[in-house]
Write a structure and sequence with these properties.
Helix content is 37%, strand content 24%. By secondary structure, it is α/β, with parallel strands linked by helices. The protein has a 6-stranded mixed β-sheet, sandwiched between helices. Strands 2-1-4-5 form a 4-stranded antiparallel β-sheet, covered by helices on one side. The chain has a 4-stranded antiparallel β-sheet with strand order 12-13-11-14, with helices on one face. Strand 1 and strand 2 form a beta hairpin.
Length: 328
């Protein structure tokens, strides 16, 4: 069975010699949630626009649902649903009116479209606001409506471009649950672009990390983290007992730097090593006040591949004026 989404050497250049996407290769099987992770300006949205036929590639090829994105653009559009970060939604129409218009555009029958619209409004918690003008919706409501519009015709493949950017936590959780349900119950393939590490970790079976227009890492979140290193255990001990603790724990894990009153070990076996560590400390007469086992994060992976941290860049963008959340 061919991949739901595939690309070979995909390139997009803009005026001024700017190369936004530089030789991207993709192979996403049917039914997978694929997370496309990277900072603003990395090439995520440009890649999505090429895969959804909104931009022509400068070079390379791409096929979506078995159709070439240039030669068979109409077939691609019929097979996909798209919720873009900057989607234009008429603020003077109501949510229900927009869904009915989408029903007509997709050629759905009146009864089928009405039932489908009601189902989506209910599922995405928009029924109470369905007959209000979209201009009165909060940011989270607009994003949920955009998702409903993308799902109305039951697409095989769903492209979500930064679906929770700027949303409050409840709205983010609602969207996450809907993505999980679609994938679990309908087998929908989901291509999710995001700069939120937690979002990629929570939803994606595989992650591609893009930086400077190139994919610098790809794999399952667990496998990518394992490439970075072992989990690190931080043990809080009485100040002055650090050296005795390290001696008692020699051979149970590789020593890692720690602060005052801390002993840190890298543990290849993770949590399985904890009982032996507790017993060794007890035998040495040392009573720890805390044990904190930290797994490598996707931010650690990003740092290892690019030399900088995605979380730090995200924080810098917010401090420069990006809101943490939309008004609920």
């Amino acid at each position: 069975m061919p991949p739901a989404v595939e690309a070979h050497g995909l390139v997009r250049d803009f005026k001024g010699g700017v190369r936004a996407v530089d030789g991207v290769d993709l192979a996403i099987p049917e039914g997978e949630v694929y997370g496309f992770l990277g900072p603003n300006g990395a090439g995520k949205s440009t890649t999505v626009r090429m895969l959804t036929t909104l931009l022509r590639p400068t070079g390379g090829t791409a096929r979506v649902a078995g159709h070439d994105v240039v030669r068979d653009a109409g077939a691609v559009r019929r097979a996909i649903g798209v919720a873009l970060q900057d989607a234009a939604i008429d603020p003077l129409m109501s949510g229900r009116e927009l869904l009915r218009l989408q029903t007509i555009l997709h050629g759905l029958g009146w009864a089928t479209g009405r039932a489908r619209a009601s189902e989506l409004l209910d599922r995405l918690e928009l029924t109470g606001a369905a007959d209000r003008r979209v201009g009165t919706y909060s940011g989270g409501m607009r994003r949920r409506l955009d998702l409903a519009l993308a799902l109305l015709h039951e697409p095989k493949i769903l492209f979500l471009d930064e679906p929770t950017a700027g949303l409050d936590p409840p709205s983010r959780r609602t969207l996450w649950e809907e993505v999980r349900r679609l994938n679990r119950e309908a087998g929908t393939t989901v291509f999710l672009t995001t700069q939120y590490l937690e979002e990629a970790d929570q939803l994606a079976a595989r992650v591609g990390i893009i930086d400077g227009g190139k994919i610098v890492a790809e794999g399952t979140p667990a496998a990518l983290k394992a490439e970075v290193g072992d989990p690190t255990l931080t043990i809080t001990v009485p100040v002055g007992d650090e050296e005795a603790s390290r001696a008692a724990l020699a051979g149970l894990g590789a020593a890692a730097p720690g602060g005052e009153g801390q002993v840190c070990l890298r543990l290849p076996s993770g949590a399985a090593a904890l009982p032996a560590i507790v017993r060794a400390l007890d035998a040495a007469g040392i009573s720890p006040s805390g044990l904190d086992l930290a797994q490598p994060s996707l931010d650690d992976v990003f740092a290892a591949k690019t030399g900088r941290r995605l979380e730090a860049e995200d924080g810098a963008e917010r401090s420069a004026g990006e809101p943490l959340a939309a008004t609920p």
